[in-house]
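Continuing the batch. This is chain 6 of the set; chains 1 through 5 are on the previous pages. Same settings as before, nothing changed between runs. Recording input and output for traceability.
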Amino acid sequence: MHHHHTVTGTKLTFLSAPQNYVLLLKVPLIPPAAVDADASLVVKMVIGTDIGIGQGESDPSYVISDGQFFIGAHIRDKNNYKTGAPCVCIEGSSGKTIGADRRQDSSLPKPSESYYPGRLETRLSLSDRWGTCFVSLDGGFSREMIFQHKLNPHNGLYLEIYADESKEKVGIKFIEVSIVQEN
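Output for chain 6:
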C-alpha cells in the first residue's frame, strides 16, 4: 500500500502521490501456480468510491494484473464527463508506476448526466481479452472494453489500483472482487 494514505472505519483515502501513474495498492487474489495458464476466468469487481472526492480531481484505474501486465477500467471524475465517458479501458505493464506502454480507449461517448454516482462495476473475461464497465448514470452507462494483452493466471492474479495525476486523491469505500472459472 502506498504510504500517502489515511484510513477510517468506512474509507481508505490515498492523498497526493509523488508522481503520475503511481501504484497505490496491490492485493494478491490468486497465488502463482494455483491455476493453469489457459484457465477461463471471469473477474467481477464492484467498487464504491468517495462521492466527495469524485467531485474533484480523482481518476484512478482499478485493474487485474498477472504481475507483468494489467487490464481493467480507468474511472474518470465528474469534471471529465463533459468531454468523455465515465469509464474507459486501460491496460499496460504492471509495476510501481504504469509503464510507458499504457493504452487507453477513446473517451467517447459522453454521458448526458453530470453527477458522480460513486459506484462502478467491471467484468473482465481474462481468456477472451474482453470486459465491460458499468456506471449508474443515465439509467446505466455501460462500456465494452477490448484488450490487447492476455493475462497469464498461472503467474498469479492481483488487484492493483493506480493513481492518474500526482495531485489527485482517491477515496475507496469498498471493493468486492469475485473470480469464477468457466467451463
